[in-house]
Amino acid sequence: MSLERLRQNYIKKVQIFFDYLTTDYGYTFIGIKQSDWTDKVIYENSKIDRKIVLSNSYHPSDYGFEIQWYRPSISTNNSDREFQIYVLKEMQDVDQEYLSKSAEQLKNQYFGIIKGENWIGTK
Q1: Minimal CA–CA distance to 92: which of 119, 123, 65?
Q2: How far apart (Å, rounded) are the C-alpha atoms in residues 85 and 68?
Q3: 35-44: pLDDT as tens digits
Q4: What's the 3-state SS for 50-96?
Q5: If pLDDT is split at 50, 70 and 90, which confidence band does 89 have?
Q6: Cβ neighbours of residue 5 closer than 8 Å, sequence gap 6 or more
Q7: Closest CA to 50 of 118, 116, 117
Q8: Are 109 and 26 in contact (CB under 8 A)?
């Protein structure tokens, strides 16, 4: 699969598998940011002070897929983020099925984070 097709597939599947953030938890789809080697899909819920960024990096020296969450009232600097869900490039499948598993992991294991009830170090 070409890199461009892989990137398009990633963006499409993230929006499908993580749609529950908008439908069930009041997040707004902020948009997609792309650079030469990275795609980021961004969701935010300003009422509960949460921003979730789903990113995939394709550069040979980058790590792959990450789900990062922030409290925008405090900071959206990388050093102030939390992320516990990631999939190294070497563990990613071509069809990107890891995205559905990661979406379920976020929803089930970090329920309190996405609802705005908990923060770092708690679930």
Answers
A1: 65
A2: 8
A3: 988 999 999 9
A4: EEEEEEEECCCCCCEEEEEEEECCCECCHHHCEEEEEEEHHHCCCCC
A5: confident
A6: none
A7: 116
A8: no
Q: Answer yes or no: pTM beyond 0.90.
A: no
Euclidean distance between CA atoms 12 and 80, whole angstroms: 28
Q: How many CB atoms lie within 10 A of CB 44?
A: 21
Residue 76 and residue 62 in contact, taking contact as beta carbons nearer than 8 Å? no
- The separation between CA 61 and the C-alpha centre of its own chain, rounded to angstroms, equals 20
Q: How many CB atoms lie within 10 A of CB 103?
A: 21
- Inter-axis angle of helices 3-17 and 98-109, nearest 10: 30
Q: Which amino acid is at 9?
A: N
Contact between residue 115 and residue 28 where contact means Cβ atoms under 8 Å apart? no
pLDDT digits over 42-77, tens only?
999 999 999 999 999 877 666 789 999 999 988 887
